[in-house]
Amino acid sequence: MSEVGEKMLAELKRIREALEGSQPLGFGKRQEPSYVFVKWDGKTVWYGRDKHEGVNRPIQERDLTGYLVNVWRFDRVDATTQEKVPRLNIQVRADKDYIIQTGFTTNFSKTFLAGLNELEPAALKEPITLVVETNEGSKHRLTLFCRVECRGERMTPAVGKGREPNELFEQAVARFGFTDPYAEERP
């Protein structure tokens, strides 16, 4: 094959690879993100909720690898107490978009935010891995933590009792430029 032919073939291969990860063009059903929740049920630590069937679906794996797209805080109104409960959303793009929803003041949120703040902003151009860890075997109440990994390196920040989730969240927003995609829709 000629040099020109090889260059054309290489360029076509590059274009095909770029298109494989993009949204299909034309008419079609828009793929909605899957909501994932963090909760220990004795067997699994993640579950998805089928909004059409109203059923929780356990997710067996403990790791989620993808591109971190956005992180935002919002208040959900508790159905029984009518109080506002702060929540954290973590949007990850993998085989599809996942929005991980967890309590804002949980150890999972704090360890996620602290680990995230250990990264350089350029690291978000690469896939990261979120690993749910538990303190199984401890005599204390079972707690879930989030370990952040990037390029095979574990982010192991110290999260003491003095580190408040608001401080960690504001640091991540300032560092990475995250925004609440629904802020204008909320009263």
Describe the structure.
By secondary structure, the chain is α+β, with helices and mostly antiparallel strands. The radius of gyration is 20 Å and the shape is globular. The protein has helices at 3-20, 107-116, 165-176, and strands spanning 34-38, 46-50, 55-59, 63-77, 84-93, 97-103, 128-134, 144-150, 153-155. It contains three helices and nine strands. The protein has one domain. Helix content is 21%, strand content 34%. The mean pLDDT is 82.
Alpha-carbon distance between the two ends: 63 Å
Q: Any idea how many domains?
A: 1
| Beta-strand fraction estimate | 25-35%
Which class of secondary structure composition applies to the elements?
A: alpha+beta
Major β-sheet strand ordering:
3-2-1-6-5-4-7-8-9
Helical content class: 10-25%
Shape descriptor reads globular
Biggest sheet layout: 9 strands, mixed
